[in-house]
Design goal:
globular, 17 helices, 416 residues, alpha/beta
Length: 416
């Protein structure tokens, strides 16, 4: 049967396998990371950085240094969600997938500590893998905390523990806040908790993982269980949680009251009302709001969501506009130019997710450090070319976005 440009093979696969075809091949679960390779009309890729001719900040730097400034004079140190950070970068959340909760994530934690950047430990790790205080345990939440602290300087970086609906049932934040392993973070002001409202890989859905049938039978009262595949694996889906303006405000107030020594972060999916949600979070006292663009997310998700659901990161940043608090951006970050564009469009820092996992998988000892080293070198070159010398100096004037009006102060006018 001729089908022209019609996706005949995909239709045939669905005819053979049914609802299992809504996901990537189940054989890849635990061995690959997911998320969009790009988003339709990705504004960050289309945008261009535009150095000016006149560079008054370079003149200020010249006077301060007593010489012509170089890219090496760009200071990338900043504050990320209440934590001092050596770079405008943080390690994004890895959840409970086999990759995210394996030795790879522990190696990533160790390197993030050495880099002096904050790290987020993703959702659902404790409900799936348990909470072990045994120091002989080489994976899991506390193993990642210890690995980070082993390499971290005492006054830089921080660890943020994410909690979703199912994590709340496991009281993950209570466990961590009272655990002796976390005390060095509390005492140095480097512990934070992140409320997960959503993620870029599957906006509007909760956590998803593949379990064997015996494990699924033990949790079928808590989760939706769907036997989509012929083999031993079944789909386990958690609730995405229910949020309104008032519920989000109340959650943030509870976090601040119950855990007064921890920073409060909120992670949003790329929804159409992302600007309103970010404003509500900042007004309620969040130290940081993370926006995960449609390109973001490393976890298991239906292909329809990966390819067709959620706003691209550039549109999220455009809708939020100049932020009133610390804004963190994630979504296909791996090199300096995408990071600098995001910083110019309002982000304080960018998160490395899939790129970090790939880097550590390539070299468990040095891969993430080398990846970030390259990103930082590119960022210094780009920021210096823009005539600026700190991430906080960047602004929307540094970016040309096709289809968007030119900033009013850059519009052409007669010289007088």
């Amino acid at each position: 049967m001729r089908a022209g440009g019609f996706p005949e093979e995909q239709v045939r696969a669905r005819a053979r396998n049914g609802a299992a075809e809504a996901f990537p091949p189940v054989e890849s679960y635990g061995h690959e990371v997911y998320g969009q390779s790009t988003a339709p009309g990705d504004g960050l890729d289309a945008a261009r950085l535009v150095p000016p001719v006149f560079v008054p900040r370079r003149l200020e730097k010249l006077i301060d240094l007593g010489r012509e400034p170089l890219q090496s004079d760009v200071d990338l140190a900043t504050t990320v969600g209440g934590f001092r950070s050596a770079l405008p970068v943080f390690l994004s959340a890895f959840g409970s997938t086999r990759i995210g909760s394996s030795e790879v994530s522990v190696a990533a934690s160790r390197q993030a500590g050495a880099l002096g950047v904050p790290m987020v430990i993703g959702e659902n790790v404790v409900p799936v893998t348990g909470y072990s205080r045994d120091r002989a345990t080489t994976t899991g939440l506390l193993a990642r905390v210890r690995a980070y602290l082993d390499e971290a300087a005492p006054d830089t970086g921080g660890v943020v523990v994410q909690q979703s609906t199912e994590d709340a049932d496991a009281e993950v934040w209570n466990l961590v806040y009272s655990d002796p392993s976390a005390q060095p973070l509390l005492e140095s002001g480097r512990l934070g908790f992140e409320l997960k409202v959503g993620q870029g890989a599957k906006p509007g859905l909760g956590g998803m993982t593949v379990l064997d049938r015996a494990a699924a039978a033990r949790v079928d009262a808590q989760y939706a269980i769907d036997a989509l595949w012929d083999g031993p694996g079944v789909l386990r889906s958690g609730s995405p949680g229910t949020f309104t303006d008032e519920i989000l405000r109340h959650q943030i107030r509870l976090m601040r009251n119950n855990f007064p020594r921890a920073r409060v972060w909120v992670k949003l999916h790329p929804g159409r009302d992302v600007a309103r949600a970010a404003a509500v979070a900042w007004e309620a006292g969040a130290d940081a709001v993370t926006v995960d663009g449609a390109e973001g997310g490393t976890g298991w998700a239906p292909t329809a969501f990966l390819d067709h659901v959620g706003l691209p990161l550039a549109e999220c940043l455009r809708r939020i506009g100049p932020p009133t608090g610390c804004l963190l951006a994630t979504g296909r970050m791996w090199e300096g130019v995408r990071a600098v564009k995001s910083l110019a469009l309002g982000a304080t820092a960018v998160g490395l997710g899939r790129a970090a996992l790939i880097a550590v998988d390539t070299d468990p000892e040095h891969g993430l450090r080398r990846l970030v080293e390259c990103l930082a070198f590119e960022a210094r070159l780009l920021i210096s070319a823009l005539g600026k010398y700190a991430p906080g100096d960047l602004s929307a004037e540094d970016v040309w976005q096709p289809g968007h009006p030119e900033p009013a102060d850059l519009a052409l006018s007669p010289l007088t």
